[in-house]
User: Which sequence fits this backbone?
């Protein structure tokens, strides 16, 4: 089975989502699955120095993940566009798994699902825009929060496990 992961950060980056993805990808490869990862080229954290995972890696050219809002948005947008471009051109996956970064990456997974006939699994670790609202970054009833929430919800119904809080990795490959 061919599994495609989409996340802005991956090995050797020390971003938490990248490290978790590296561990899961290694496990799946050791279980006999074929794993491909589409990730960004600009680092978030440092390098962890671990050996290269035995997975196919496509690094999308992205702008730098700057600490300011404009730089972060530019980084997100360049990754989303590049991930979609590579996701519809890579070997057809049986399963596409979207992680947390950037917010709304599940829309790229949904597009790959529709265009390539893959199952789509959303592996959420951060919940957007909910966390931004709770932290006071966005107003609960403001247009940005309402728009992001609507877009996010449209990607979920077609994803297995979207109404559950837990979905074992084994069920991705069934």
Assistant:
């Amino acid at each position: 089975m061919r599994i495609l992961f989409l996340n802005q950060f991956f090995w050797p980056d020390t971003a938490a989502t990248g490290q978790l993805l590296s561990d899961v990808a290694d496990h799946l490869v050791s279980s006999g699955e074929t794993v491909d990862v589409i990730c960004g080229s600009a680092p978030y954290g440092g390098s962890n120095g671990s050996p290269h995972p035995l997975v196919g890696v496509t690094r999308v050219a992205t702008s730098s993940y700057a600490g300011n809002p404009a730089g972060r948005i530019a980084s997100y947008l360049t990754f989303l566009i590049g991930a979609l471009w590579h996701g519809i051109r890579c070997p057809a996956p049986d399963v596409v798994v979207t992680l947390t970064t950037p917010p709304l990456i599940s829309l790229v997974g949904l597009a790959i699902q529709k265009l390539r006939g893959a199952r789509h699994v959303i592996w959420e670790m951060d919940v957007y825009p909910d966390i931004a609202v709770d932290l006071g970054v966005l107003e609960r009833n403001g247009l940005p929060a309402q728009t992001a929430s609507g877009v996010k919800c449209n990607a979920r119904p077609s994803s297995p496990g979207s109404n559950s809080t837990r979905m074992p990795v084994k069920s991705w490959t069934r």
The first strand starts at residue 2 and ends at 6. Strands lie at 2-6, 34-40, 56-60, 95-98, 119-122. The chain has five helices and five strands. Confidence is low (pLDDT under 50) at residues 158-168.
